[in-house]
Structure formats: C-alpha cells, structure tokens
Automatic annotation (TrEMBL):
This is DUF3365 domain-containing protein. Residues 1-20 form the signal peptide. It holds the Pfam family Tll0287-like. InterPro entries: Tll0287-like_dom. Keywords: Signal. Residues 46-183 form the Tll0287-like domain.
Amino acid sequence: MYKKLTITLFAAIISLPVLASDDVTEARALIKQFGSTLKGQLVGAMKEGGPVKALKFCNVRAPGIASDTAASSGWEVGRTSLKIRSKENAPDAWELGVLEQFESKKASGADPAKLDFSEVVESNGKKIFRYMKAIPTEKACLKCHAAKVSPEVEAELKELYPDDKARGFKEGDIRGAFSLSKPL
Ligand code: HEC
C-alpha cells in the first residue's frame, strides 16, 4: 500500500513537467506549420504580383490561415504585436506582458529568434495552457513594415489599415509574436 502510494505520487510528480513540455512541443510544431504556410503563400503572392498583391493576400488570407491551423488542431492560433497593423491582432493583458518581457530580454542581449514563454493560466475557473514565440523582423518584412515603403505599398496600407502601427521596424527587431492557447 505504502509502496503503491509512493509510486503513484512519484509518477504524478514526474508527469507534470513531461506534460508541460509536450504542450510546448505541440505549440512549436503548430507555429512551424502556420509560419511556413504564411511565408510560403506570401512569397508566392510577392512573386506573382509584387508587394501590393502580397499585401492584399495578407489582409485576406493571414487570419484564415490562422483559423485553419486552429480548427485542425484544437488550439487557438494567432499573431500579435506591441505595434499592430490589424486591430484583430491586438494583444490581451497576458500577451502584452509577455511581449514587454521579450523586449526587455532582447535589450539585455537575448536573440529574438530564441525567445519564447509558456504558462498555465486560469480563466473562468478553467486552466488554459498559453504559449508565445517571438517573431524577428527579416529583410523580406521591410517591404511592408519598414518606416519607408514604396509609394504603392504606402497607398494600399492607408486604404486597408488607416490606423496601422506596424511600421518603423528594422531587421532584427521583434516584429511581434505567435500566440497559442489550449484548454487543459
Ligand atoms: C506584402 C506586405 C507584407 C509583408 C512583406 C509582411 N507583412 Fe506582416 N503584415 C502584413 C499585413 C497586411 C498584416 C495584417 C494581416 C492581418 O490582418 O492579420 C500583417 C501582419 C503581421 C503580423 C500580425 C500583427 C499585426 O501587426 O497585425 C505580424 C506578426 C507580421 N505581420 C510579421 C511579419 C513578418 C515577420 C514579416 C517578414 C517575414 C512580414 N510580416 C512581412 C503585410 C506584410
């Protein structure tokens, strides 16, 4: 009896971190899938019709790709930022805290490509696993997220996103983050 209890307790203790890391592994795999679909289609649209076509693509398809990834996995999947383009991507309080934490880690020398954070939070009495991974700004992103963009892109952005805040980025900046969550 004593032995069985000890084994049960031991199993419960060691299974906790294992469970958490399974969720992180799953979240990272989803980000890979979501990120590469987004990037693949963005590059395709760029090649086909330049940045204006790609911009329209992002406007229409980026939220859809996020919800497709979510629907097939049971997770909520999205992107957010301290400087958002689409209001739909505005951070909630938890995301805001994590984004600020990423910025301060980067300021003390951390590589943005390696910044991530996970936590189990409670919402309405339910436990939710939440995970965020920073998205570094690459050269290809500057066509639509730099301070200076082509006049055509500028005009299109004005029309689609009159309140656009997602400008002024440089290579290596944290553009934003993937944000995923799953009820436990
Ligand atoms: C062709 C123009 C274009 C390029 C190039 C581009 N983006 Fe965007 N980006 C957009 C548009 C449009 C949105 C808003 C999409 C939406 O409604 O979700 C957006 C939104 C985002 C968001 C979501 C947060 C927000 O501001 O709404 C992130 C994060 C992001 N882009 C990162 C990147 C990164 C990283 C790159 C380079 C790998 C990149 N973008 C390249 C046009 C572009």
